[in-house]
Each structure stands twice: as C-alpha cells, then as structure tokens.
Amino acid sequence: MIEWKNASLRFGNKEVIKNLNFKVSLGEKFILNRESGSGKTTLLKTALGIFPLDSGEIHINGTSLNFNNINTIRGMIFYLDQDVSLPEMPINQFFSELYEYKANKTSHLNNKKLEELLFEFRLDSTFLNKNIKELSGGERQRIGLVTGLMLDRPIWLLDEPTSALDKELKLLVVNKIKQSQYSAIVVSHDDCWNNL
Amino acid sequence: MNEVKFLSVIPILLLIIPILLSNRILKVKMNRELVISIFRMVVQLVFVGLYLQYIFTLNNWIINLLYLVIMILVASIHSIKSSSLKLHPLLLPIFISVLIPQVVVLLVFNYFIAGIENLFDAKFIIPVGGMLLGNCLSGNIVALNGFYEGIKDDEKRYNLTLTLGASRNQALLPYLRKSITRSINPTIASLATTGLVSLPGMMTGQILAGAEPFTAIKYQIAILTAILVAKYFSVLLSLYISRHKCFNNFHILDKRIFI
Prior knowledge:
Chain A is α/β, with parallel strands linked by helices. Chain A has one domain (about 1-195): Rossmann fold. Helix content of chain A is about 30%, strand content about 25%. Chain A contains 6 helices and 8 strands, in the order βββαββαβαααβαβ. Chain A is globular and about 50 Å long. Chain B has 10 helices and no strands. In chain B, α4 crosses α5 (about 85-115) and α8 (about 170-195) packs antiparallel against α10 (about 215-245). Chain B is globular and about 65 Å long. The interface between A and B is medium-sized, with 26 and 18 residues.
C-alpha cells in the first residue's frame, strides 16, 4: 500500500503537487495518463525520496517515509524511469551486483528464474554478456522489467515502461502486472494499459 | 656551487622577445597575457624570495607551521573554486583532507629522508610542502570536478541505482573509482617515464646547485613517492569527507553546491 497525505511540492514558484491525498491499496493498480508536464514523474519520485515533499506525508505499507528509513522504503518499491538508466556494465555483472546492494542482501540471485524471465522477454542467455550501454531502448526496457520481476518488490512505480516494446511484449508486461499482487502506479499514455 | 647573480637572469628573460615577435607576425593573440604572466611571475618570486629569506633566518617552528597552514588553506580555496563548487560547505572538509596527508608525509620525509632534528625546519617544510601541495591541488581539482560533475551529469543513473537498493556509498563507488583514476593516473604515468623522458625539476635544481647526482636522485625518489602518497590520500579524503556536505538526507546530490 502506498499513500500520499496532504502532499505538496513546489519547484521555485511552480506548485507541482498541491495538497494531494491519494492511495493505492495492496494489489491495486493505477494508471496515470494525464497530460505531459502535469507532475506524474515527479509524484513517483517523491515516494523514493528523490524529491522530498515540502509538506505532507507518504506512507508505504504503513511506514511514514523519512530519511532514517529511506533504504528500507526503497527496498519495498521497484521504480523504473523512462530512460531505464541502469548502470553501464555487462548485464550478468549488473545482476550479480544488484544482490550486493544494501536493500537486496537478504536475497540471492536465482539464475534459473533469471533465464526463464529472459526467455519470456525474448532475450536468450547469451544476452547476459552484453553491456547495458550497447542495448537498444526496447532491450533496455525489457532488462529493466526483468530486474523488477527478479527483485519482486511489493510496490511498483513505472514511468512509461512499455514505450519501446512491440505489441506482443506490451501484452506480456500488462498481463504480468495484472496477475501479480503488486500495488502498481503506471505512468503511461500507451493504450495497452487500458485493460489493466 | 655556481652562484647565479640576480641580474644574470635578464638574458633568459630577453628570449621572450622572439616569442612576442613571432606571435605578432602569426597574429596569435597571447602577447598581453604572456607579458603580464611573466611580470607577475618575476614580482611574485621576488617577494617570495624576500619573505622566505626572512622566514628561513627566523626559523621558528610555530611560524613555519602557520605558514604551511596558510599555504594549505589557499590551496584548498583554489581547488574548490577551480572545481566550480561553492566554498562555504566544502572549505573545512577539503582543508582537513589536504592537511592530514600533507603533514604526515612531510614529517616522514623530514625525519627519514632529510634526517633533520627540527621536523618543522623552514628550509624543508616550506619548499617540500609547496611541491606536495601543488600536486595535491591539481589532483583535487580533477577529482572534485570529475566526481560531482560526473554525478550531476549522470543523475538519473545515480538515482536509479539508489532506488534499486544501493546504499549511498555503493551508488557513489563507480564515480569514486573514476575520479581517483583520472586524478592519479597522470602521476603514475610521469613516474614511469621519470629519468627517461625528463629530469625532474627538483633533481635538476639540486645538480645545478652543485649536489652529487646520487644525492639528487635520493631526494627525487623520496619526493616523487611523497607526492604520490600525499596526492592519493588527499584526493581520497576530499571525496570521502566532502560527500557529507554534498548530498541531502535522502542521499540525493544537493545541486546548491555548484557555482
């Protein structure tokens, strides 16, 4: 569950979020498809402490976000930005290092699950030797989504996650999210999300 | 020792005139800056010579130490400003980061290499300190600039790494590695070619002043190693200590640090 309570955020003179009260319950999915520049991406980033609120609170699974628990909170949320700005390194190294990160240390890399997910997303295992910086937008997006499914965090915040995917893959992603127990907020103008 | 009379430097200064003529013919616009820089160099060095002579005669360890601290303070201010960063939050962290390795390396140098009783002897602490500081300064500029500008330019990737579960230190590690490499690599490269491509300034100066080449070499090996050690730890400490002032409580880069 993720909830914004009386949340406000201002960038200079511009009020980006004004006294917002918004809740996505456990397992609930929400699509944000308002016009560009309306603060959708900013809203997602407030939940991760990238843009701390000027006033109000954010509750993640009942815990109020603050700087003392930021690592724990980030460990509950899977966030994917529009550009899928993953660290530039070979993909296999990325997945190994992912499980050395502070918030993921309690779990281990499941190679079998990784291979299955790569296969589902039409990426074979030789792909693991490629460097992330060599990937196309669509490949990067697929690796990003596989990362989320590997981490299996309860809350998903996705920013245009299917913009570079073909119809078949879009359907796969939508179905994965639909069938999951994740609480999800998806920022997208893509029609495929209408069926969520 | 062949004493160089002060006015005998004039012929070498006159060799600047062909450069000025050449620039004029080729329309290379640098003559004004060149003349000003030469003039500044001469005036500054004359003043340095005068007050160093006074400090060397006085040789009071408190004044020597104070002089060193002022040198470190000026170097710290210059390295922050040259890195396009604001002075206020960073002065103390950078000052401490330069001071600690500088003093430790200087004391080791004075005790083991120079073998002097007064570890704060002006004739050693000021010129050797100056050589170390000059190198720490250039190293810190490259490192601080590369580190903070690197994170700013790569902000999305840095932030996404945090959201993927990395601690601040884990997310900073790639930028730290890159900055240390960029600032220390030139020193390592120059170490590898020392004696083959060029004779270092300190060694040349000692030989010209009449020292035996082997004595000059001993000092040169010691000073080059001292430069490497002081520079490395000054860069490392600068990045480690300054990060406490440059990120908010959520580990996001505070862009107010940039000028």
